[in-house]
Design goal:
Nucleotidyltransferase, domain 5; about 475 residues; 2 domains; six-stranded mixed β-sheet; seven-stranded mixed β-sheet; alpha+beta; globular
Length: about 475
Amino acid sequence: MASCYLALDQGGHASRAILFDAAGEKLDEAFAPIATHRDAGGDIVEHDPAELIDSLRRVIAGVGARARAAGHDIVAAGLATQRSSMACWSRSTGTALSPVISWQDRRNAAWLQTLEPRRGWIRERTGLVLTPHYGASKMRWCLDHLPAVRAAAAAGELVMGPLASFIVFSLTREHALLADPANASRTQLWDPRRQDWSEDLLALFGLPRAALPACVTSRHAFGTLEVAGVPVPLTVVTGDQSAVPFAFGALDPAAAYVNAGTGAFAQRALRDQLPDAPRLLASVVWSDAAGVDYMLEGTVNGAGSAFEWLAAREGLPAAALIAAAEAQAPGGAPPLFLNGVSGLGAPYWVGGFEPRFVGAGSPAERALAVLESIVFLLVVNLDELRAHGPPLRRIVLTGGLAASRLFCQRLADLSGLPVWRSDEPEATGRGLAWLTAGRQEAWPVTGTDFLPPADALLAARFTRWRAALEAALPA
């Protein structure tokens, strides 16, 4: 029987199970959508925990049954999840005691403002800025507002932690209570220097250490999955964005890895060195017995979600708006879009920033403005990344928005860097499978190059956009 590897990718819109052979060839995949529930104001963003776990069970069962029928031997599995999303559950029964609260959720933003005087202290200890997008303020909200969570805490039954930990507990035979570095770090309770929970941070947020999973490395014996009646070891757990760069093999310190999906993330790798960059995020992307890979990251909260915001505003599908943006004639003058969808991320870090257009235009021109705003924010973050490590020589681009040739070309034009767009639509799954397979030689990949000719009109719009955004920032 041929050995193969199962990659489980749990994202904001769906759960996927993807099967790869030892040479990196995709053999099979299964897909199950999940619903995202939002309030009218956009501060509450959550998933139903039972639906989410069921979606994973269904994709595992589908791929597993076909693999068994085809004579494939699944020798190991890996899991990648939405970082910063979290859940609460019962230690003895596994029953969810809260929704799965999305990384996009801002329900406890007002409470978090009380910690503003400790912003610098938190940044120094975690590598993260103070924002409600991370797990700690969500956990605090659950303890303050959910009677089932408070009762479980009083009885010593409460477990709270990253979404990845809830999934591992729910799916493994052993009901393992473990947290990997990529997901633990996004709780804002994890010390990257000690690779463990921080007692000082737990005290600051008023959260019990006894309720948190044990911290382990990215490669670990996380437990055993049942796949079509066959036990399969779960050997790698990480975050979705943390897996993406590994789709192309070992990390390249001269590359900026950009993944543009619901949000857009610009990352660069630093080996065994925790970077000091106060306007960006620093976190562990991988750890094992050999060492630690850190990532310096700039975050754009409104990417695909910005088009969803525009779709609701215009009454048109997001895909149609992206197509309309692509169809705009060169040399036009679209309005500018100050992109505060889901909050203004790096390097500004302004929660609750109201999205707004500067100037008038047609729906298609507004769609182009939204697309360009994502490029503009990415370029601001790439400029921040350039100050750390060797000179950047290329951008490796993945994610749903990478399907737009206009997006790719605008990013190359404005950054001055060649953009290589992967042909692999499932970079998270591919990177996860490569890690699960043992980080051997890079698997073959194909892609498209976008070279950066100068675009004076785009550069002028970027200058006006940046001035308008900075003028709109709170004092």
